[in-house]
Amino acid sequence: MALALCAGLLLGAGGHAAAATAAGGAAVAAREQLASPRQLVGTNWRATLAAGLAALPELRAQRFLGGQLRGQILAGSLYLPADITVLGDTTIVARRIVFAGRSVTIATNGHSFSLLPIERMQAADSATTALAPSSTGDAGVANANANGLTITINGDGNAGAPGIQGTFGFDGADGVTGPDGPDGIAQDPEFPGPCDGFPGGKGTDGGSGESGTDGESGEAGQNGEDISIDIPAGSTDIYELSSRGGTGGTGGLGGEGGQGGGGGDGGDGGAGYDYGIGFQSLGPDLYSCNGGSAGDGGAGGNGGNGGTGGNGGNGGNGGNGGNGGTITIGVPANFDQSLIHTDVSGGFSGRGGSGGFIGQAGSGGQPGQPGQAGSYGNQGLYGVTGNSGWPGTSTAGSDGSAGSSGTVIIRG
């Protein structure tokens, strides 16, 4: 009798151990499957993983979380506010999910989001009761009503950053004024020289303005993020799901071109030599000089040409729009799919940046003044004003390309 009892105890203990081992193995397998939530959506995972889910201690606990979520979240009963911000890739697996209101908004902020309720999702009668457990541990659920939610999940990609504006070009240097012409000199019989004034020198041309640098290209819009949701049986909730690509960034404005330098002024003409009245030699070493013709004044120098204005930098190209993401939805039997609204549009292209302002042309230099004539001589001619330079040019950047549409997968 005693032997039989001992044998029975040993067999019972062995059976419990075997059962515990099996439950542990099922829990490990369930955790591995939950690590890839998108692959479970639309399959019979609730039944096939039932033993493993039952063995997970997290799925027997109540959890009360605030509005910022990240990572894998497991719970038996999970209580959440109606407005949720996702701070990292997030997966929610809970037997029952209770929101603080019937209008639920989830912003994924560039992260993937998976929602896998095992039994139901529902609204509490107020935010207070949803986030504070009651004495019954039921957190004040309104009539345990699984219907009437509107769940909006925004997984849109962010817009690309605009390109940086190009830098401006420096102005061209002004031209240098031409040298003045020397005055005429006396006609010495031994050392004859010209009595006309010399023309003034031409002013140098102004320097060209530097081109502005090109604006940088706008960044591409982010792709829409993946959304996975497995709708529980009996749901009549409305699902607004968006995973649009972000708009491409605008190209940067081209840098402004530098202004062309002004042309240098022409030099003044030299004065003609004035002989005055002739005189006789006052000694044997001096020569006599009769009054000669007065020298003509030198011509004024021509002004230098103005410098060409610098080109404005080209505008940066617009960024490409992001691609739409993938939305995967599991629907139960007899679910009204008209309650599901999705948008996986590609992002709009970014506009090309405008070309930079062109540099203005430099002004031509002013002519030099004519030299004064000696007595009875002729005044020199005026110089010519320099030509103005040409303004620069610029080109706008090209628009980016629109993003491609994403994919909606419905399984069930």
Question: What does this 3D model show about the protein?
Answer:
Residues 3-11, 126-146 and 277-292 have low confidence and may be disordered. It is built from five helices and eleven strands. It has 412 residues and is of the alpha/beta class. The chain is rod-shaped. It has a domain at 25-161 and 222-249 and 322-347 and 404-411.
Give the SSE order as H and E letters.
Answer: HHHHEEEEEHEEEEEE
Q: Can you count the helices?
A: 5
* Rg over alpha carbons: 45 Å
Uncertain regions spanning at least 5 consecutive residues: 3-11, 126-146, 277-292
Number of strands: 11
Helix content: 10-25%
Distance between the termini: 57 Å
Estimate the mean pLDDT confidence. Answer: 84
Sketch the major β-sheet: 11 strands, parallel
Strand content: 15-25%
Q: Helix and strand layout, with pairings?
A:
Layout: H1 2-34, H2 37-40, H3 45-48, H4 50-55, E1 62-64, E2 68-80, E3 83-99, E4 103-107, E5 113-123, H5 127-131, E6 150-154, E7 227-230, E8 238-242, E9 326-330, E10 340-343, E11 407-411
Parallel strand pairs: 1-2, 2-3, 3-4, 3-5, 4-6, 5-7, 6-8, 7-9, 8-10, 9-11
